Amino acid sequence: MPQLGETVTEGTVGRWLKKVGEAVAKYEPLLEVETDKVASEIPSPFAGTLAKILVEEGTTVPVGAAVCEISESASAGTASAVSPVSAVSPVSAVSPVSNVEQPAAHRAQVAVRDGIRYSPAVRKLAREHRLDLGQLTGSGRGGRLTAKDVLQHVESGSARFSPAAQTAASAVASVSAEKPAAVTAHVKPAVVAPPAEGDTSIRVTQMRKTIAEHMVLSKTTIPHAWSMVEADLTDLVKWREREKEAFKAREGVNLTYLPIVVLAVCGALREFPMVNATWAGDKIILRKQINVGIAVDIEDGLVVPVIKDADHMSLSGVARKIVDLVNKARSRKLTMEEMSDGTITVDNTGALGSIASYPIINPPQAAIITTEAIVKRPWVVNDAIAIRSIMNLCLSLDHRVLDGSVASRFLQSVKRRLESFTGAA
Length: 425
Description:
This protein has three domains: 99 residues, CATH 2.40.50.100; 48 residues, E3-binding domain (Dihydrolipoamide Transferase), CATH 4.10.320; 212 residues, 2-Layer Sandwich (Chloramphenicol Acetyltransferase), CATH 3.30.559. 29% of the residues lie in helices and 24% in strands. The protein contains ten helices and 21 strands. The strands form six sheets. Strands 11, 14, 17, 18, 19, 20 and 21 form a seven-stranded mixed beta sheet that branches. It has a four-stranded antiparallel beta sheet with strand order 4-3-1-6, with no helix packed on it. A four-stranded antiparallel beta sheet has the order 2-5-7-8, with no helix packed on it.
């Protein structure tokens, strides 16, 4: 099982792209692996024949666990070797070892991080309490960390959060402190009747689980508020119609409204930097970088790749970057770097025909904005009714970070920049 990010300790086999007995070329896609952030195609580290699948689709195993065996073709009079593939690095060759299969129970027993092995129980406790296991001392054999060690550390009150979980933990703690115990108590899920005749059960992928957990975290820890404005984009629509063919010939990508919106959002963030912020419990962090996440609809769900330093880019630069990220998202080639450090999210719900929406914030960000479908509507211009191209802009905000006045002025700034856009940016 490959490690697709520094904090990733396990992965789920989403789909095998080869069957047992099929030949596989070096670097040819072998399987799809899902983690809590990305779903990626994993290439074979060498050429041969898929001899055995050790991990079935839908199974989650720790990083470094063998997932299959590949029989390398005999060469130069040497007998063929069967090599378990753990793909710790997706493209690095795995040296042939004994073909004695490691028991499945042992393969799933431990996970490795920074050379230290942790049991599933320890990892589960670490996730629940958001602990940095590197700060704990183990009492087990050879200094191994046990579940008892973790529980004692938590009960002592000296638990240290891992850096990746610090923001989320602070948000949970701050909201919980403000709510009555009855509100923060564990809520039991609704009772669901078992599948009846004719019903279809669909396996919940790791991506879908992560989306569900992320959205529940957002709605239960962030006090959402929202606002909407109407933008008259008639002049922008006419400008794009005039320029799109020349832009495509010059830049090699289509001229869509999304990169224009991204530039308008960047300009508004420079005007109202408080929107480019994060709630961190006892402080609010204003981010210097403007990293715009773009919601991309893919077959299995929704991913949000990030345009880093979007405010330093031109219209053509943003347009090309969006095309690159969308293509990578739909071909499952996004990296963890391309999915991290977003400071605000733009969701083009209008591409699906939506005219108004109430988006859920992508934590730990403080705001998300949707661009809705551009619709021709009767509009009052100079006390006369005219047909104009109107688009709704919807903003959800974290009310701990932003008040309605700042959010509304930010939204008006985005609107003003779109209505007056000339292509000079």
